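The instructor's notes for this session suggest beginning with a concrete chain rather than abstract definitions. Hand out the sequence below and ask the class to guess, before any prediction is shown, which regions might be ordered.
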Amino acid sequence: MKKIHLMTAINSLGYGVVGWNVYKELAKLADVTLWYIGNDITPPTQATSEDGERVRADIAKQDDLDYTAPILKIWHEFQLAERIGKGPLTALSFCEVSELNTRRITHLSSADKLVLPSEWMADITRRHLPDKSLCVVPMGVDRTVFNEFNNNPPPHVCTFFNCGKWEVRKGHDILHRAFSEAFPTETDVQLLMMTENPFLSDQQKNYWEGLYRQDRRIKTMARVTHQQELAEIMSKVDCGVFPARAEGWNLEALELMSMGKELIITNYSAHTQFCNSDNARLIDIVEEEPMYDGLWFKGDCGSWASLEGQPYDQLVAELRSVYKQWQDNPSGLVNTAGIETAQKSSWETTAKQLLEATLEC
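After discussion, reveal the predicted structure:
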């Protein structure tokens, strides 16, 4: 088996979920030396004893490493320069910005080859780095965890769901308002928000939660550790709603599709790689606006989708449309096209393509 070094986080956040699923599949295909990023390893799925033994064994390979073996690093586009050994570096990164600043260009340039999850991000990168070797490899979904066979939404409440850390980028500044406007008096509807952001101060968390506490039908939820817990929560919802101004991929949207859930989502950025008019209710974007939230984005990263005007009105209308369909047939909201999309999106395929890209570097 070919030797490779894998540098990745393994936890319940986005990069960690990707890292764990890619690692599990790569370990079947290659001789992997594991270099985990962060303070520890917390698998986002309930790991078996065999998983633990394999992780320990692959970390132990650091004691006698091959300095020339190729490297696959899964990490932020502005933290790619560090590598292991002297082998060629292939970097998989998720990026939400439309303009690459100096730091991003420098760190992306440090990799010998880039792997990007969407054509949207590839087009942006090619514009800034026209001579860079890159390829597109879409991410997968674990159908053993996220599937349509164990759904059990509450029969008397139409339930919408949003998952993703508190951010203006994810449309959290307008979703609560759109929900309340769509349902001014209805009592058989709710919105679940799993949006805890570990990088915010207590004051910032209180601000976001305060916005959503204004409507008693909106419930905020703590982040769960394991994917099985997330799937259990998703099994009880009717529709995912993601009014994102920009996304680097959006794992949760594909996971909801895999469970046959309806999906309301912006027709913009990386998730257009798997979202289309057949499997999602697309919010059309009319204009873009400067990428600014005063915290993570300071206006120097280009533009993102504007949610003002028509997109906001369409969001309200789509919420109402899903609710009307639910009223007519509470058990009839099955996203068959979404399931078919997920069936073509396996972590096994993702890992094979990543290995090919790494070995070709």
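Then share the key points. Residues 310-328 form the longest helix (19 residues). The mean pLDDT is 96.
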